[in-house]
TrEMBL record:
Protein family per UniProt: Belongs to the zinc-containing alcohol dehydrogenase family.
SUPFAM superfamilies, per database record: GroES-like, NAD(P)-binding Rossmann-fold domains
Enoyl reductase (ER) domain mapped to chain residues: 10-355
Name under which the protein is recorded: Alcohol dehydrogenase
One MF annotation (Gene Ontology) recorded for this entry: oxidoreductase activity
Record's keyword annotation contains Metal-binding: yes
Keyword Oxidoreductase appears in the UniProt entry: yes
Organism in which the protein naturally occurs: Planosporangium mesophilum
Length: 357
């Protein structure tokens, strides 16, 4: 089958038509991908910011149709439309039973199973998903059924950017109506944090991005005010009477912007780190400021969500007109245009490019 292969970190993706996929084993399903979003984390996999062994098929924001199921699989069934989850919950561990299935480690993170090969050499599936290809084999829990009337492009986006962004507001921070919010980084995930904040009834909602072009778009996703990073102090004075924001969301994935988000919150305020940063990029806080300010710093992985119910919840919100998902799709592309989609993302020209397969 066809797919995009990263031979080693830093080299361009290669379109191959010789990828081989093993049949689904017990508890696994084979999915024919129909639409796949290009997320910044895919670029981070390709440039080494998020290290994974190569050769690698990136792609993790996907939707498609189940074409085969392995032994013992009851759900999903062949023909079901599914959204891929890049953290499939095992369903029985401490985290799954305790209401934090997004932290379940019993998947590719602790038990990688190679399902791809190229010319006899094993190839990794990024985040256990490997969605930049025509088909993939994943655990049944990674293929979550959705209604058949949802377009695949819409469904794909729910699989990462939408759930990560909206979930950070509703699940991680649990923002309440009338709380103030600042969002630093208004790309494909950041605009979903803005939409989530609007949904939660937050106000004011300040959108911050280094690219002024992103700020105009941010207003359409719920921002009540916008600022470039250097204008943050002014905005704090104007919008919060100098106190600082109740909630700050960092959606870039860098220590400098995490520090900026933290500094923009009030005493007792909450900073949520949504961006996927590098393991070696350290943020500094003094012991005294933590203690005296009583500020909170929260990580947010995959929107602190339970994909078994939250994919459907996002789609209901979209169907009810409460989330705008169409507007996230800047362009639809072919598989061999992902390299160009990365470049467009880096130039800040697109919210999401979506591959049609
Ligand atoms: N200050 C403010 N905004 C910044 C800064 C900065 N120093 N650096 C980058 N940005 C903005 C970019 O201009 C862009 O609008 O952050 C945004 C990032 O958006 P995308 O490239 O579309 O990335 P996205 O897919 O939204 O992912 C954001 O979340 O899932 C993770 O790995 C992903 O870490 C990444 C982050
Ligand atoms: Zn992603
Ligand atoms: Zn588990």
């Amino acid at each position: 089958m066809r797919g995009l292969v990263l031979r080693e970190i830093g080299v361009p993706l290669e379109l191959s038509d010789g990828l081989e996929l093993t049949p689904p084993g017990p508890g696994e399903v084979r999915v024919r991908l129909r639409a796949v979003g290009v997320c910044h984390s895919d670029l981070s996999l390709c440039n080494g910011t998020l290290p994974q062994p190569t050769p690698l098929v990136p792609g993790h924001e996907g939707a498609g149709e189940v074409v085969a199921v392995g032994e013992g699989v009851i759900r999903p069934q062949v023909g079901d439309h599914v959204v891929l989850s890049w953290i499939p919950p095992c369903g029985s561990c401490f985290f799954c039973l305790g209401g934090q299935p997004n932290l379940c480690p019993y998947n590719w993170q602790t038990n990688p199973r190679p399902v791809l090969s190229l010319e006899g050499e094993p190839v990794n599936s990024a985040l256990g998903t490997g969605a930049f290809a025509e088909e993939t084999v994943v655990p049944a829990a990674a293929a979550v059924p959705i209604p058949v009337d949802v377009p695949f492009e819409i469904a794909a986006l729910v699989g990462c950017g939408v759930l990560t962004g909206v979930g950070a507001v509703l699940n991680t921070a649990r923002v309440r109506p009338g709380e103030s919010v600042v969002v630093i980084g208004c790309g494909g995930v950041g605009v979903n944090v803005l939409q989530g904040a609007r949904l939660a009834g937050a106000t004011p909602i300040l959108a911050v991005d280094q690219l002024p072009g992103k700020l105009a778009g941010a207003t359409g996703f719920g921002a009540t005010h916008t600022a470039t990073p250097d204008q943050i102090p002014e905005a704090i004075a104007e919008l919060t009477g100098g106190l600082g924001f109740d909630n700050a969301f960092e959606v870039v994935g860098r220590s400098a912007t995490i520090r900026q988000a933290w500094d923009a919150t009030r005493r007792g305020g909450t900073t949520v780190v949504v961006g996927a940063g590098s393991l070696t990029d350290e943020v500094r806080f003094s012991a005294g400021e933590l203690f005296l300010s009583e500020k909170r710093l929260l990580g947010s992985l995959y929107g602190s969500a339970d994909v078994r119910t939250d994919f459907a919840r996002m789609l209901r919100l979209w169907q009810g007109g409460r989330l705008d998902l169409e507007k996230l799709i800047s362009r639809t592309i072919a598989l061999d245009e992902v390299g160009e989609a990365f470049a467009a993302m880096e130039r800040g020209e697109v919210i999401r490019s979506v591959i049609n397969l």
